[in-house]
Amino acid sequence: MDKNLDRLNVYASRLISQKEYFVPGHRACQGCAEALALRLVAKALGRNNVIASATGCMEIVSSPLPLTSWNVPWIHVAFENAAAVASGIEAGLKVLMRKGRIPPKRINVMAMAGDGGTSDIGLQALSGAMERGHDFIYVCFDNEAYMNTGIQRSSSTPFGASTTTSPAGSVVPGQTTWKKNMPEIAVAHNIPYVATACSSYPFDLMEKVKKAAAIEGPAYIHILSVCPTGWRLPPQMAIHAGRLAVETGMFPLYEVEQGRYHLNIDLSELRPIEEYLKIQGRFRHLTPEMIEQIQQRVGEEYEKLKKKVRMTNEGQE
Prior knowledge:
The chain is an alpha/beta fold and 317 residues long. It is 41% helix and 14% strand. β1, α3 and β2 form a beta-alpha-beta unit.
């Protein structure tokens, strides 16, 4: 089974373009899975692509004046308005095409931000853009905290994780709220396409980006981007951590097309959540009771997701 999968991956890798649009020379940390995710996203979208990038890790590491790691049109915008700027770019391109100023061809418009710039600061702009039905892709690179400014908690920080603004101590054991389910918030806007992805599964990630680009209307992709610095794990463990997040059910890989759910990796049995938590320093303070609490929550959420898959696909097989 594993040998067949390895051969399939080798074959798939030969079909991928060798051209790079997010190029080497950036200043990301060692083992940064977010930089890998961005490279894969840019590769999947290709050259006909305009990117509006919110303030965040990938903006900082890729654009230190006068240098850049971008081989496509790219604009740095404020923390909160990447989706609004992408909406304006998409509308402007339509006008230019209608007036014959540029040829009428497919140009992808992408907005990108981290979890803070998406689920916190940028949520209003993103919600408005999805409601208006702009033809653009929004990618959230979720490293589960404000890593760029010092590892502060966000609404995407998991329960129990220790950050600089939710430190684990004798009174408060780290983050006290559960991770905001941003993909489901996007689904609630009735947009054509929503997906989760992880750079530990590169081919799945790239296929979802290509699918999002081909769909008319808003598309939202939520990418788990392991941050060795903020998660307190060795850089060489980043890919392994991403796989454990999926295999334990902490971060399921699924997509929602026109309201229909599909699990990309359907696990009959989840690995124990402790395998994922124990390799990360941000969870080292967790008690057995807290781990059990997280395990129960993950199991319940995974069953809810599987139920949605069954319900939205009844009679479609």
